[in-house]
Amino acid sequence: MLKIQDNNHKPIRQWENITSQKTVVFTVHNASLVDCFEDERGVTVFYGFLDQEHTGNSTAKFVAKQIEQTGVAGLNQCYGSFIVVHYEHSQQKFTLANDALGDFALHYTTNGNVISISDFPKALLNKNNLAINNDRLLYYFALTQPSQNGCFFQQIQQLNAGQCLTIRGQDMVVANYYRPPDTVNYKTRSIKDLSQQFISLMQTVVKYQTQGQQRVGVMMSGGMDSTFVTVNCLQTQKQVSAFSYVFPNIPQANESVWIDAMRKQNLKQGFQSLDMHTFSGEAYWSLKSPWHISLNTPVSNPYRLLKSVIYQNAHNRGLKILLSGVFADHLYTGYIYWLVDQIKRKPITAIKSLYSLSKQHGIKMSLKQIAPAKWKSRAKLSAPWLSKQAQQLLGEKDKQQQVIKHPHPQQYTLTYGIATAQAAWLDNEYSFKHNIVVRHPFRDRRIVEFLMSIPAWVLGDINNPKRFVKTASAGLLPDSIIRRTKITTLKPLFIKGVLDKELHKVRDLLADTSCNWQQYINKKLITTMLANPQAHYQDSEYLALWQVIGFELWQRRLDSLRKR
């Protein structure tokens, strides 16, 4: 049997004529994203978004055809964020899969002949399967990417990006249907031509991610990535509502000048299709009550309240889809290999670059550009804020890391990592509550594969880390955004909440004798921060404190579930 139900266990669709030895129960958290197709060959359930042209109105029918033609490898021809359940009558076989980048995650658990699956682990939890996956916790506290099961619960499995689970009889096999390209195209191509290709690709992706909606929203800061998405969305003839938060009394976080530049350009060019909405974000500090605690994961965005205001405003204006510029920096970080790529492919140019660089920045900075770590096929795991025991465990995991064949290992790990995919689908937990779906153009596989194929020296260098996107943005964005050098940060809002307004809550929470965070994080670091909240700390130390808070709040939520 195959059964689809919503997160309140209300049936959506059920098939009794399936003769598999296993029963599959699929719980979804947004019933409007479900599409089903059935013919004499089998049943296909598609949950999510298919971001491409396809004949007919049924996404499930299109996906079924791809699988019937070439097997599960046919999913390589499917772009978007989704989970697929496919059953073949002749083979009595289930195929369960998530999208190539894992932006809709498939979680599953087994109980006898019943396989329960869901887009969020919460739907699969009960009093008997709340044991924690300690390996995943280690990576969580180390602020790095796990290589295997990303779920925080031992008895709930999460498919990696581009994986499928095949079920036939009593056999269950997990395999990869998608493997990210591991090569860079070093053929000579002008940055102008590549930029035009990028713009065209971005507009195609935006069009597909917003198909069916003439009016869409964009979460727009004053940075280049979200404004780039905004202007390209306008180029697709959409009616765009841009939502921005500003901080008049927090200069380090305030991006008003660049948001105003977008407003002025809009008025100058006469875009009737851009509607801009700005609100002050200063009242939405981290941990401000009511602060929702997810059961799905301890991972928590400290600036979630800001996003929730945008979700609600978008919903009030009748919007269904919000675009973001998030995850662009994961792709642009490939620039750090600019000199290494030159040495490998353009040695004469590299010598000239090294000479010029040493004159500008000195020998020490020059040598950093070709540091040994940039030649290795694995990024070294390092987290000095961990406890000694956790550091030892992390060192053992470091030796087990897979070799990355792509010439830019750090860029590859950030882009294709499990934690990155989790950050994408966790947005949906909160946006769904406002009947909003968040889409990320920089997580589209076509854009990801394109930017991952570009030589590092084209993406940028030490003097101009965002050279490529700046070139692509010329004539589209205000010059003040393209030439922007000032870096803003929401860190003051974090400090205002965690180490000021809500400090008493944090101290009470972390002083509780039932806390377990000391197993993972250097106790002296956290106690020092709580005793001296006005002092200045490293960004990584603030992040470590936030991970501790998220973990302990999550533990309390799980404890309440255990006691029911």
From TrEMBL:
GO terms for biological process: asparagine biosynthetic process. InterPro entries: Asn_synth_AEB (IPR006426), Asn_synthase (IPR001962), ASN_synthetase/amidase (IPR051786), Ntn_hydrolases_N (IPR029055), Rossmann-like_a/b/a_fold (IPR014729). Residues 200-556 form the Asparagine synthetase domain. Coiled coil: none annotated. GO terms for molecular function: asparagine synthase (glutamine-hydrolyzing) activity. Belongs to the asparagine synthetase family. This is Asparagine synthetase domain-containing protein. The lineage of its organism: unclassified sequences, metagenomes, ecological metagenomes.
